[in-house]
Task: structure prediction
Amino acid sequence: MFMDSLQTRDQHILKVNDDLIGIIQSLRYLRISGKLSVFLSEIIQNHILHQELEHFVEPTGIEIEQVSMEARLQQQLVNPDQFQQWLIANNITYDDFRNQIIYRLKADKLKKQIAAPKLQETFEQQKQQLDRAVLSRIVVDSPELAQSLKIEAEAGADFTQLAKQHSVVDDAVVGGVMGPVSYGQMPPIIREAIGNAQTGQIVGPVEIDQRYCLLKVEKILPATLDESLTKQLENKIFEQWLAEKVQSAKIELNVDL
Result:
C-alpha cells in the first residue's frame, strides 16, 4: 500500500522492464544500500561548482574545439562515425559532449583561480615530502649477512652486483633499483633511515617484515614546481576548498524517505 502511494506521487525517471522508478524510490534504494550520502555529496559539490562557474566568461570556440579534439584523440574517436557511435553508446548527444567540454574548461579556470594564491606556500610547506630519492636495496634474511654486505659495498664492491647475488626480493634482477620515490610516499621506517643521507651513501641494515634491508641513495631529486606538480597541488588545494564549501553549506533533504 505504501509503495503504491509512493509511486503515485513520485516523478518517474527510469523504466526497468515494465517497472517505473521515480526519484524518491531511487533515493530510497540508495539509502538502503548505504550509498545515499555519497550520491548527495556529488550533487552538492556540483551545485556549488555550477554557482561559482556562473560568473566565468564562456570559453571561445577555438578553446572548445581544441579540448574537444584532444578528448576525441584520447578516446581514439577521430573518425566521425566512431564518434557518433560512442555518443550513442554513452547515451549523450553532441550538445551534451560540448557542454561537458565547456564545463571542464570553466572548472579548470576556477581551479587555477582558487589555487593561485596558495600554490607557492603549499609547495614550500610540502617540499620535504615532495622531494624524491632514487634508491637501490639489498634485502636478506639475516642481520649478519646484511652487515657483511654493507662492509663489502662500502669497501668498493658493486652494490648492483651484490643485490643480484644476494637480495631475496624481486627487484634483485635489476640490481635492487627501486626508482624515484617521494619522501612522502616512503614507509616511515625507510624515510627515517635515509634521513639526511647523501648521494652514494649506504644506510642500514633496517629490519622490515623480519628481513634486513640495505639502502643506497643513488640520487636525490629536489622537487620543483613544474607543470606536473603544479597540477597536482592545484587539484589538492581545489579539493580542500570544495570540501570546506560543502562542509559549511546548509543542507536539508526535503523529502520523506
